Structures are given as structure tokens and as C-alpha cells.
Amino acid sequence: MCMNRIVQALHVLYLLVLIPGHASSQEHPSLTITKEGVVNIQRELGELPLFDVSLEQVKVQVDAEISSGIDVPIPKDYSGGYTHERHKLNYLTMQKAGLLYQVLDDEKYAIYVRDMLMQYADMYPTLPLHPKERSYARGKLFWQCLNDANWLVYTSQAYDCIYEWLSKKQRQDLEINLFRPFADFLSTGNPKFFNRIHNHSTWGNAAVGMIGLVMDDDELVQKALYGLPDDNIEPNAKDNDGGFIKTENGKSGFLANLDEPFSPDGYYTEGPYYQRYAMYPFLIFAQSLHNARPELGIFEFKDSVLLKSVNTLLQLTDKNGDFFALNDAQKGMSYQTSSLVTAVDLSYYYGGKDTSLLHIAEQQGKVILSDAGMEVAKGVNQNISRPFKRKSMQFSDGANGKQGGLSVLRSKDESLTLVFKYTAQGLSHGHYDKLSYSLYEQGKEVVQDYGMVRYVNIEQKGGGNYLKENNTWAKQTIAHNTLVKDETSHFQGTYEIGSKYHSNLYFFDASNSKVQIISAVESNAYTDTQMHRTMAMIEEETYGKPFVFDILRVNSQKPAKYDLPLHYLGQPIQFGFDYQATATLEPLGTANGYQHIFLEGKGQFRKKSNATFSWMHQNHFYTLTTIVSQNEQFLLGRLGANDPQYNLRRDPVIIHRKEKTKDALFVSIMEPHGSYSPVTEMAKNAKSNIEHIEIIYNNKDYIGVQIKGKNWLDKIFILANTENDKSKKHRLTINGKLYEWVGPYTYQNKK
């Protein structure tokens, strides 16, 4: 057992011994705001503009709801329907009203919370399971327990804020009729939901734990921290997304969810979109434990991974602050979301007051109404913020950081950003996309990851939930910028297989800003097949913009058909090869995502050469230059086949196909260059700077590629295929010329 695991085990043992003996007279409020904090906030009112603005915004929202009256309808809708959205607005408003009662000392807010809670207490004992039956864990107020847990996480904060204002009889009524049955329903009543490693359970654990803290109920707090000791969950039980519910090690509870999905770097295995979603219960419950059970040292757990994860999450955004669309992810989600406002404030307050977080808070334009929010507002008012710097970084995946990872390469000023994925499966929200990438220029996607097929909280589209095309398209390998073998997805598109494996880092090097490089290997996506992909972001000063150099080597035991798609965004400008447009649109295939691609055209190559493809996106030009050989093809496609309900975007794709090939080598350059002004109607640098690329050396040990371009560019890139030691010296003769270097690669002038 490694030292880290020993430390974790001792910490858990300490907590198990400590909590049962806990006895205290609980002080209120103590979850997300404290009595001392209230006094401090009231003292500073009118002195901290950012806090005052945030307070006024919340007050306006809550006052409007108070004026419109309380509505606690009988649940009946999916996400986006009236009853769903009403109960969601109710818990958000109650949480805010509770804080307003504390900060402003105005009873009307306590009355509002009390009256609404009493209506819920009257209704809850009569509620059956929600009438919608789609979820593996149906809720009562909502169609799934996940949303019920959301309700209790927020409502427990409201209850905490008015706890001492309520009479003893009112508290008893609420706890007997509402809160205790609610907590039992989420935990012992739904072990499949509560006892797992997943963002769902994080919400459930936090909900039960927080109401347990308010009621000073150690039994509930223990359930939250360590899960249910006996859950009777079948080993192969699955959720709605096809993921296993029970882990092999059987761990559950909040601490397990804090330990298992997070790598030591703070990367969350489900990806940044769901990390953003889970950060709220993670941090709010942690803050509650810190306030009510400081002896637990929750913010120090696993080398302070929770606080570390906030910085990681912010690093996983583009230049505009939007999260990279990895795995199941909705595009456009950014650090402007309320969960990230909470995360930034708490990370600043409990994480050593990193002044770069103040820069993010300034951009968010609001803070939470708590001790933490007040401190952030103070820092902003003192003008001590410094810019938050996004950097080229490598993030490991897995609890021990040994299950692959994710790399982000950024050019200067973030003009170009490459996201390269070699992670583990990512639980049930993962996609089958090993060694895939996406590319951004100035924060705008150029080569895209599709993300998820879901219209969140738009009831007209499948009740606001995941659509079947999320499985038939978005999760499939062909929907990503990576290799497809024989028109099948990685791991046969099967979670049972994919969840067992991860890719492996070959090397990562961002020490030279002119040549940043990531290289990784995948050996399990296809039987008896290894993929090794190396991507470099290269800056040549005379070109103005960097370009991306890509080598994908495939070794297999048998000949196969290989497809390498490029999911570009924009309008084709020029084809550097002959092609034939199709007269009738037909699907490219019948399964594994191919059934959703219309074949629009086909180019066939007669000899070894370079093929180029140029397009324009948002008035910027891009060119793909690819080495092709005889009988290889470029397939021009567009999404939309077998999609009668128009659930999919009609996005384009170009596919490089090699057939009847045992070992395959894909070499290309993706180059941003130039722009077009619709005002002046002038194009600048509309043509590629790359003149030619050629493989000049290739065996099992090395590959050498010559890159010729304008302005006398004549470079050679050599990669050591089997030796990644950064201190290893290499000597290689190519065409009579000796090349010497140290490390797994070299990029130098051709001799």
C-alpha cells in the first residue's frame, strides 16, 4: 500500500472513531454562513461595492418571488416543465431568502421560507414516486433523485438560516414530516442513487449530510460521509447512461467521492462540465463540515484536492471562460455559472487567498452572500487582484493519477489552444474517444468535439434529458477527431470494456513555447491494435500564427479499414484534390454513428502526395495538409442522416480513409492563417504557408518528417517511437545527414 493510501486509510479510521462520540449543541446558522460572519457582513454593508451589488441582485429576485406568492404544485413534469422548474425556483429562492434574513435581519424573508417549508411538509408525506418513470432512481418532487437532492442541498441552507427563529414545534413538524423522511428517501430508500461513485451521489451525500448537520443528527452525517454499510445493490446494476452503479472496491459516501474521481491534480474523471456541476455540493458540504465539524479537516483531505480542483477547473476553460466540451458536455457552459461563483469564493477564502481568483470574481461580477463572498469583495475593493493565467498543462486522471490524462497546449496570448484527451472512460458520462483532440482559436472552436446530445431543460426536446442520439452519435468514436477501425467504436462502444482501460502518456513537454508537444499511446481500444499519437503546437515567427503538427501511428495484427475524421466548423473554401460530389445523399454506414453521416462527396488519390483542404470559419482561414498514398480517400460528410426529429446539428466532417492496411501512418498539419473582412471585403493571407510535408524516415524506432513552407522554412521533425526518456541522446542518419538530439523528439533545420 502506497503512503498516500495509508494516510487516507488512517484519516478515515480517525473520522469513524471521532464522529459517533460527537455531541454538541448546534449553533445556527453554521452551514454556509456563520453568526460571526453575519456580524462581519453587517458591519461592512455599504462599503464593498461587489458585495452590495450581489446583495441587491438577490434581494430583487427574492422580493419578486415573495410578491408573486408561494406555489408548491404536485409534481408531474420532466426537466423544463412547469412543476419541475417551479420546485427548482422554490429551493433557489428559499436559500437566498434565508441568507437575506440573516444579512438584513428582516423577518419577511424568514416568514417566506417558513411558509413555503410548511407547505412542503404538508405535501411530502402524501407524495408517491414521481409519475415519470425514466430514471433508475425516481424522485418524488422531481423525476429523478438527483434533482430531489439538489432541493435538499439548497433547502437545508434555508432551514439553517431560520432555525433559531422557528419555534420548537415548527422545527419538530418540519423534521418529522419533511426533512428526516426526505433524507431517508434519498439514502436508505435509494441505495442505487446514494451509494456510488458519481456526481449523482455527491449531491445525495451532501444533501443528507447537510440536513443532518442542521438537525445535529450524527446518523445522517455518517451516512453522508461513508455511505450505507449494506445496500444490496446487484454487482452489474447500471444507471440510465449505461454506467455501473457499484464500484469494484465497494466504496461509497462523500469521502469516497472526494477520493476516487479526483486525480491528485484535481482533474475530475467525468470531465469539466460535470466537475462544474458537482463542485457546488462538494464545496458547500465541505464548507458546512468545516464550520460545524472543524475537527475533520475536510479541506486538507487528499492533499487539499478539493481546493486544488477549482484551479484545475478554471484551467479547463477557453479564452472566453467556457469549459472544454469533453465527454457529455453542453457547449457554452462557463465560469459565469453560479456554481463557479461559489467555487471561486470558497477557494479564495479557504485556499490561501490566491489573488488571481479575484480576477475571475471581477469578471463574474458577483459574490456569494457569506463570509467567503465578503472576503472576495474586500480583496477586489483593495485592488489586489492579479490576472488569472491559463497555461499549457498536463492533468492526470484516476485516483492515483495513473489512468491517463488530459493535456492542454496554449500558444502565446492563447491565440491557439489544443485540447488532447487520453483519459480513463469518465464513468457513465464518458465517450469512446481515445487520443482525440479539439482546437480553439481566440476562444472559438475550430476543430470541435460535438459534446452531448441534450437540450437541457427544454421540455419539448425529450423532456430536457439526454436523447437517444447521445448514444448513437455523440458517444461514438466517429463523432470525435480520432481513429476509427473498421467502422466500429473504441471498446466496441461498450462501457463494460471501456471502463477497464485508459490510455498512457508517452511524454508531455511545454518547456519550449515555440514547440509544445503531447504524445500518448492507446493499446486497448481495438483488439491487437496500438495507436500512438503525437501532436505538436509549433510557432514560426514569420508565420504569425502557430500550426499543429499531427502524427498518428497505427500498428495492427491484421489488415483493416481506418478512418480519421476532422470535425471542422465553417465553410469549405478550396479542395486541393479532385473529388466527386454525390447526386443523392445517403448515410455513410449503418451503425456506430456512421448512420448519422450523409456522404456529400468523395476524393480518390492515385499516387503518394499531399492533399489539402481549406475552409473559413468566422472570417478566419484554416488549411489541413495531409500526406496521402495511392487508393486512399477523403470522404466529405455532413451530420443529419437518420435524424427525423432534427436532434443533431448539421455539422460538416471530412474523413481520411485508408483501406486494407495493416499498419497505418497519418501525418498532417492543421494550420490557421489569415482572415477576411466583410467590411473592406478584403482577404489577408488566405492561402496556406505550408508548401509540402514528406516522410523522409520511417521504421519502428523513428519517424522523420520534412516540413517545407514559405519564407525559406525547411524543417525536420523526428520522433523516437519507442524511447521517451527525456535525457536519452539520439544519433540518426537520414539521407546521408547526421542528426543529433536529446529527448524523445527534435524539431530543427533540415540539413
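Second entry:
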Amino acid sequence: MVQKNPSFETLFIARQPVFRSDETVWGYELLFRSNEENVAVVDNEAQATSSVIADGLALASEGINPDLKILINFPEQLLIEDAGFALPKDRCIIEILENVRAMDEVLDAARRLKDAGYTLAMDDYCGQAELKPFLELADIVKVDILALNANPGCIRSTLASIPEGAMLLAEKVEDVATFNFLKKKKFSLFQGFFFSKPEIIPGKKLSSSIITKLQILSELSKPDLEPARLGEILRSDPSLTYRLFRYINSAGIGLQEKVSSVKRAIDMMGMLQAKQWLRSALIADFNTTPRSGELAYLAVQRAKFLESVCDSSNLDDCVPDSLFMTGLFSLLDAMLGLKMNEILKLLPLEESVEQALMGEGRLHDLLRLVSSYERGQWEETFQRLQKVGLESSQAELVYVQSRNWALKMLGSAHASSADAR
């Protein structure tokens, strides 16, 4: 159960990945939101200080590769106050919001940042004349594909109004077909939830190793799984055994002596945590595309978040492990390029979890909660939190804890078998 903490200043912080054309991650945009007024924290003049932004950055960027870029939205007042200078210029990109007015004092503030070596991005551009003064300063121009209805003619005319030399980022790219179309244009970067949508390949066959992993995941979902059988599964794969030892002997676990047997590891972790670790490791192994790493992180965080929501909410009849599985398997179709109903033929699960993965039932409603959080759809997030009786301060704490848990789990899960040798 997550305890309420009245001193915990709630900053809903979601992060959205930005991809290159080869689907590797270039960076992240951080989305900040206050819990009560449903407005961006950086838009609230009472709270809009460089310290708030810096604190939020530290919280949200934990575990992100330091070589990746971070985009942060800046409203008008913060630009004028030079709050951007509180951020590291080699990593953070100042994103000028589309509702910022091109007044002299704002443009002067943007020039000060640019002259100091900061990278500037123009947000949500779709040809607005009032934003053109910013285009002369912007290193990156984010084109709002959704506002242009992904219309080729509208996209062409918008691109024609952007000065040569600016890096083009297509944002709000919501499906794979649009992503593939935009790759043929001048865009270098892509943002949106196309990466979590399945790209179904007709006639695709899964490899025997993937099928074996799905079978193991199915076995791990059984409530009567014995510790001895779990030990057999782990010992059957030297890479898994090594990664388990690496995880349990890590500094974060805090054991006084090293664990060197599978049985001892399971005894120390307990069956529930051992199963969760193994599930996370198997999900991390579904590396069928470059974006799979981001999908694995998202799936593992979803799993832990939903499990914790079950423990912390007013839902009397929810089962934490069922919600864990719902979150963990929710992106398998995107990872494997198969329809979810085809995957479930290889991965039989309890009925409530299968219904959720097919978009039905009460567990699917909870899956929508975490999905709205990821997308920064704060109004929907608040409404869904109210339904489960969870305060926003609790939800933020759970979200941060689940993110840290996912990073710790996948840190060990991504350890390669080559390291073991």
C-alpha cells in the first residue's frame, strides 16, 4: 500500500520517446502537469520557476541514457525569465510552445538561449504565420501531423514554409503507415504512439525461441507453479541464471553475502518477485525491432504500476498478479507483429486478462488509465483515478516507483549472455 505523503509535491511527469527513422530512440519529451488544476506546471506562474523544472527533470530523467536528448516545454513567462539557463544545454532542448507570442522580449530571450549554445525547438507548427519569427531561431521544428490530418498536400505546404537547415520532427504520428510515409519526406525525427501500434505482417511465423518464451510465460501465469519448477526453468537457460544472479547480487538489493544458487535466489526473492523478474527478463528478450527496448520498458512499467494501483485503490476484488500480467502483455502485439488474438492462442491466460488484452472488461479500463498517463492525457487520467479512489499524489508516487522498478528489472534483464561468458 502506498502511503499518502502530504509534503509530496505532485508533478505528473510522463515521457514520450522521439525516434529516428530506424526506430532507435533519439530522446524524450517530458510532459509536466499539476495534479489539481490540470494545467501544465510550467504554465502556472506561481510554480513556474527554474527549480521546479530542474526538480522535474531529475525525477523524470532518472535511468535515461545521458546521451539521449530531452525536450522540455517552455511557456512565454519562463522564456522571459531565462529559466532555461537552469538546464544543461548539452542535453536539454528548449521547446517553445505554440501559444507563445512572438513579442520582442520573448524573441530576445530565445536569442539569449541560442547565443549561449542551447538548442531551440518550435512546438506544434503547422504553418501558422504568427510563429514564423520563431522559425528563424529554431534548430528543430516539430510539425503537428495530426493537425494536418496527415494530408500529403498540407504537409508539403507546411514544409515549404520552414527555412532550410532546421531539423524536422514529425509529432503526433499515431500509426505505422503514417510513420512509413513520413520517412520518405524530409523528417529526421518522429514522435507519437505509432511505436506501440502493432505492424501486422501477414503470414509471419514466430521463431521457435519466441514460441518457447511464450510457453514459459504461460506456465509462469499459473497460480500453482511450484518453486522447484521455477528453478528448472531458470537453470535451463544459463543466460537467465546469470542475469538473475546479477540482479539479486546488485547493490540495490542490499544482501550481505552473494547468492550463487538458483534455489537460494528464489528463497531470498520469494516466488512472486522471482516470477515477476523472470517475466520481465523474457519480455526484454523479444527484440524483434529496434523499438522493442522502449516497448519492453513501457510494458514492465505498466505491469508494476497496475499491480500497485490494485494494492492502493478502493477496488475490492482486483488481483494484483492479474493486473501485472495485463500490463506486461499489453504490448506483445507491437513487439511481435502479430494480432493479439493470435498471440493468445500461444499464451493462454485467465479470462479476465485475455479480455483486457482484447480491449474488453474492467481490467481494460485500468489499462486505459496507465495509457492515458503515458500520453499525457491528464483530464482522462484524473477521471480514471477518481473511479478507483486513488489520489493524484498517490498515483504519482506509484508511477515513479514503478518506473524505478522497471529500470532496475530491465537493467538486469538486458545484461547480455556475452557478459556471462
